[in-house]
Every structure is written in structure tokens, then in C-alpha cells.
Automatic annotation (TrEMBL):
<keyword id="KW-0325">Glycoprotein</keyword>
<dbReference type="InterPro" id="IPR001563">
    <property type="entry name" value="Peptidase_S10"/>
</dbReference>
<comment type="similarity">
    <text>Belongs to the peptidase S10 family.</text>
</comment>
<dbReference type="InterPro" id="IPR018202">
    <property type="entry name" value="Ser_caboxypep_ser_AS"/>
</dbReference>
<keyword id="KW-0121">Carboxypeptidase</keyword>
<keyword id="KW-0732">Signal</keyword>
<dbReference type="GO" id="GO:0006508">
    <property type="term" value="P:proteolysis"/>
</dbReference>
<dbReference type="InterPro" id="IPR029058">
    <property type="entry name" value="AB_hydrolase_fold"/>
</dbReference>
<keyword id="KW-0645">Protease</keyword>
<protein>
    <recommendedName>
        <fullName>Carboxypeptidase</fullName>
        <ecNumber>3.4.16.-</ecNumber>
    </recommendedName>
</protein>
<keyword id="KW-0378">Hydrolase</keyword>
<dbReference type="GO" id="GO:0004185">
    <property type="term" value="F:serine-type carboxypeptidase activity"/>
</dbReference>
<feature type="signal peptide">
    <location>
        <begin position="1"/>
        <end position="18"/>
    </location>
</feature>
<dbReference type="InterPro" id="IPR033124">
    <property type="entry name" value="Ser_caboxypep_his_AS"/>
</dbReference>
<dbReference type="Pfam" id="PF00450">
    <property type="entry name" value="Peptidase_S10"/>
</dbReference>
Length: 481
């Protein structure tokens, strides 16, 4: 009886909360799971040249692959001798959808190094943010000045960045129908791009293909892996892209089980019991919306809880005074990107990376990519994760200090997954993880799941702890199985 009453209370609360939240205006405005303010356009008077479309060249028998690679080569002293290639791949001819990629061959043993794709989240965040701020071989230190990094993942990986989905970064589509509506669209377009990249760069002797990403890429990474898994199952070995595993950092994958901020914020001392009650109420309402497949309602609650893109802000901002949810040691925004924006928008860069005058979109005010993914935002890829966990290594890592996709939220959904090893996962011992004697974090493993906490890092873990996260990914791709 007591239980029944409790459940009734939860249901009634959920309905009341949902009704209250329905009044809010649509929140599809600006940034979602991305900390970076908008890029300004920048004109340095240098002719940006023409965009380079590689697909017709790849399909032309009278042009050798070597010639196509030469055309895609990124040249210029500003890149400090770091070898790279970039251009457009047509992934959907009907809608003229084209994906921009930027590829950095491995510095060590490129013939055998694993191929690793990095995807940013958003939706609508350019993967070039990951390149220049998190795990690439170069970073921007002044308007038009780059510097080599020490722990770029291209040290030991053939490292690819793709602006995904189309409409993000330099990737574009010429038709409304070309935008991704769901993760099936995302997976299909990405797979097409990866197939063409394998043609172009012939990583025949590489030790395998890995997909990594962060934040909203908690959807994209499984989407690509799952699409590859399904479409490749009938193929001969030599025609297959040798998918080995995935790595997801602070990823939103299963909102139904990840919408649990209240307890976390309470334990951190950022809210009191009154605040906790408000969070619990809204969270129950959000879950009710998801269960009813009312994704608009679910997203509005998510926004009012924590994102606060609407003028009325969020409960989180109201109660804590925080303007920043990527690291709980920091209450305010950091201006990470203005130098990067100027660098990417300059004619010299545009010319070198073969994008011509194509617009660059990163979490714009009118974020088309997010608009078209509206129904997808609060949907789950948990069933795909379960399938992937049967066959591939799945690393789920978390920067410890993140709020927006915090470690306990991730754990909460991982615990609901059913896969070979899921029972062991619930009781598996946690191991202390050290890098050169430094306490880097903790690791738990069961079946194909590797769960890692990265100490002293926020939402963008490779930005905060480049050495540890490099060691993590390198170990994963070189020494797992
Ligand atoms: C293929 O490339 C050759 C040599 O550049 C060119 O002459 C020809 O028009 C191309 N064919 C197609 C179908 O684009
Ligand atoms: C790489 O593998 C593909 C597919 O098996 C094959 O067509 C191609 O000739 C190979 N390339 C090299 C350089 O070995
Ligand atoms: C892969 O290795 C084989 C055997 O060593 C070699 O013949 C081939 O050229 C290599 N392929 C590539 C693309 O390097
Ligand atoms: C936040 O506080 C403001 C000012 O009191 C209020 O108008 C707004 O509705 C609050 N937002 C939420 C989501 O609670």
C-alpha cells in the first residue's frame, strides 16, 4: 500500500510538473551540450579558393588515388610540417550533402597504426574544436599561429575529424531533406564518408578502426558503429572496415536514465533539500514525457532543469548561480574559442583546407542541425549499445568534474544495459589507474565494457588532462584484445 501510494504520488507529481512545463516557449535556440560561444566571421582579404569535392575524383578511373591524395594535402608553413589532408566527401548525392573531413596520418608507424575517428557533440558542434582544443597535433595560440601539442592522438593513430551531421562545421547539405532527423541518418551518412576515406587512404594494414567522441556524440558514436555492424555483417572480411571498438567521453546516450541531476548536485553541496525536491519533481516529469514518447516535452524539461537556453533560465542556474556546467570547480564561462574562430575563418586557412567560401556553422543561434534532430535529442541509443557490447570494445570515460553529463548519470544508464558481462559489471572491482606514478583515475571492466573515471577533468577531458587521456586512448586501441 505504501509503495502504491508512493507511486501514485510520483505519477501525480509528474503530471502536475509536465503541465507546468508545457507553458514554456520552444527552447530551440542556441547552445546545447557545448560550451563554446559562436564563431565570428573573419575576413583577412586572402582568396579562400574553391572547395575540393573528392568523391567524383575517387570515382574517376583515370585519376590515381595518389593524385587524389595529393590534391587533398593541406599545405602551408602555418601547419608546422604536420602532414594532413582535407576536403569534402559527397555522402548523399540526391540532396547534395557533403561532409568535411581533416585527416592526420599517424606520426609513428602509420602503416599499422589504428584508424581513429573523432566526433564532436552539440548537436551542431564542429569536430575541429576537438582537433584544436582537445586531442589534435596542433593548437591555436594566436590569431594565425599554431603550436604543436605534446599529446595529440595522431602520435599513434591515423586520426580523422569529420564535421557531423551535415550542416555542422564546414559540412553542408543543399536541401532541407539532407539534414539528419535521427541517428539512423547520422550513422548512414558517416558510414558513407568512412567508406570513401578507406578508399582514398587505403589503410589496408592498419590494426583496426575505432570511433571516439564526446557529449552528444554519445549518440553519434554508437549510431555509426551500429550502422557499420549491421551493413557489414554480410560482407567478406577484405571488404569490411575492421571496426574494433568505440570510446565515448561524458556522452549523452540514454536520457531516460541520465536525467538525474538533483542527487548529484545535492551531494556536491550545490543545492539543499528544497532544491533537491524541485529537481526530483522535474526529473520525474521528464521521464514521464520520454516514456510517452513526447520528446518535445522531455527536451523542454531538460532545458528548464539544466541547460537554461530560454530567457527564464534553468533551475540549475537559478539555484546555484552557475553559468557553466562543464566543470563544477568553475562557475563561469571561459572564452576558449575566439582565436580558433579567427583562424578557421581566415582566407589562408580556408584555402589550405579546401573549403573555399562554404559557411562554417558551430552551434549557431539558428542551429539547423539541432532543429532537425529535435525529436532525437531525448531519445535513447541504449539498445544499440547493448548490441555493440556483444562484439566490440566499448570504453565509456568520464571527466570527474563535469555536471552536464556527469559520471553518476552515465553509471546510472550503464547499469541498466543488458550485455554479456552486465551482471559482473554491477559488482566488478574498481581499479586505481596511474600514469607515470600520477593518480589518473579509476577503471572498471566487465565483458567488453571498460568504464573509466578521469580525475581532475571536466566535460572536455582531453583538454584538461591531455596526457592521461592520450594514455587511455592509446592503451585502448593498442592493447585491448
Ligand atoms: C576523369 O578524369 C579525367 C582526367 O582528369 C577527365 O578528363 C575526365 O573528364 C574525368 N571524367 C569524369 C567522368 O569526370
Ligand atoms: C587494399 O585493400 C583493398 C581491398 O581489399 C584492395 O582493393 C587494394 O588493392 C589494397 N591496396 C593496397 C595498396 O594494398
Ligand atoms: C600491406 O602489407 C602487405 C604485406 O606486407 C603489403 O604488400 C602491402 O603493400 C601493404 N599495404 C599497404 C596499403 O601498405
Ligand atoms: C528562474 O528565476 C527567474 C527569476 O526569479 C524566474 O522568472 C524563472 O522562472 C526561473 N526559472 C526556472 C526554470 O525556474
Amino acid at each position: 500500500m505504501e509503495l502504491l501510494n508512493h507511486c501514485l504520488f510520483v505519477i501525480i507529481t509528474a503530471v502536475v510538473c509536465a503541465a507546468e512545463y508545457e507553458k514554456r516557449e520552444s527552447p530551440f535556440r542556441r547552445s546545447f551540450i557545448n560550451p563554446y560561444p559562436q564563431f565570428s566571421s573573419h575576413n583577412d582579404g586572402i582568396d579562400p579558393g574553391e572547395p575540393l569535392f573528392l568523391t567524383p575524383l575517387l570515382n574517376n578511373e583515370s585519376i590515381s588515388r595518389q593524385e587524389v591524395r595529393d590534391m587533398a594535402r593541406v599545405k602551408g608553413p602555418q601547419f608546422l610540417g604536420v602532414e594532413s589532408y582535407s576536403g569534402y566527401l559527397t555522402v548523399d548525392e540526391a540532396y547534395d550533402s557533403n561532409m568535411f573531413f581533416w585527416y592526420f596520418p599517424a606520426e609513428q608507424d602509420p602503416e599499422h597504426a589504428p584508424v581513429l575517428l573523432w566526433l564532436q557533440g552539440g548537436p551542431g558542434a564542429s569536430s575541429l574544436i576537438g582537433l584544436f582544443m582537445e586531442n589534435g597535433p596542433l593548437r591555436v595560440i594566436a590569431q594565425n599561429k599554431l603550436q604543436r601539442t605534446k599529446y595529440g592522438w595522431s602520435r599513434t593513430h591515423n586520426l580523422i575529424y569529420i564535421d557531423n551531421p551535415v550542416g555542422t562545421g564546414f559540412s553542408f547539405t543543399c536541401h532541407a531533406e539532407g539534414y539528419a532527423r535521427n541517428e539512423c541518418d547520422v550513422g548512414r551518412n558517416l558510414h558513407e564518408a568512412v567508406i570513401q576515406l578507406y578508399k582514398l587512404f587505403a589503410w589496408n594494414n592498419s590494426s583496426g578502426f575505432w570511433i571516439a567522441g564526446e557529449s552528444y556524440a554519445g549518440k553519434y558514436v554508437p549510431a555509426l558503429a551500429y550502422h557499420m555492424h549491421n551493413t557489414q555483417s554480410g560482407l567478406e572480411d577484405h571488404d569490411r572496415i575492421p571496426l574494433k571498438g568505440v570510446a565515448i567521453g561524458n556522452g549523452l546516450s540514454d536520457p531516460l536514465h541520465q536525467l538525474k541531476y538533483g542527487d548529484y548536485l545535492y551531494q556536491l553541496g550545490l543545492i539543499d533539500e528544497n532544491g533537491l525536491e524541485k529537481f526530483h519533481c522535474a526529473e520525474a516529469a521528464g521521464r514521464a514525457c520520454i516514456r510517452q514518447q513526447d520528446m518535445d516535452c522531455a527536451f523542454e524539461i531538460f532545458d528548464s532543469l539544466i541547460l537554461g537556453d530560454l530567457p527564464s533560465g534553468s533551475l540549475f542556474k537559478n539555484l546555484t548561480g552557475y553559468q557553466w556546467y562543464y566543470n563544477y570547480l568553475q562557475a563561469y564561462d571561459e572564452d576558449y574559442v575566439s582565436k580558433l574562430g579567427n583562424f578557421l575563418q581566415s582566407g589562408a586557412t580556408r584555402r589550405a583546407i579546401h573549403v573555399g567560401n562554404k559557411p562554417f556553422h558551430d552551434m549557431d543561434k539558428e542551429n539547423q542541425v539541432k532543429m532537425f534532430l529535435k525529436e532525437d535529442l531525448m531519445d535513447s541509443v541504449a539498445p544499440w549499445m547493448e548490441e555493440l557490447l556483444k562484439y566490440y570494445t566499448v570504453c565509456v570515460y568520464s571527466g570527474q568534474l563535469d555536471i552536464i553529463v556527469a559520471y553518476p548519470l552515465v553509471r546510472n544508464y550503464l547499469k541498466t544495459l543488458k550485455f554479456p558481462g552486465s551482471d559482473r559489471y554491477k559488482t566488478a572491482p574498481r581499479k586505481i589507474w596511474r600514469v607515470d606514478g600520477e593518480l589518473a583515475g579509476y577503471v572498471k571492466q566487465a565483458g567488453n565494457l571498460v568504464e573509466i573515471l578521469i580525475r581532475n577533468a571536466g566535460h572536455m577531458a582531453p583538454l584538461d588532462q591531455p596526457k592521461w587521456v592520450y594514455e587511455m586512448i592509446n592503451h585502448l586501441t593498442h592493447y585491448t584484445r
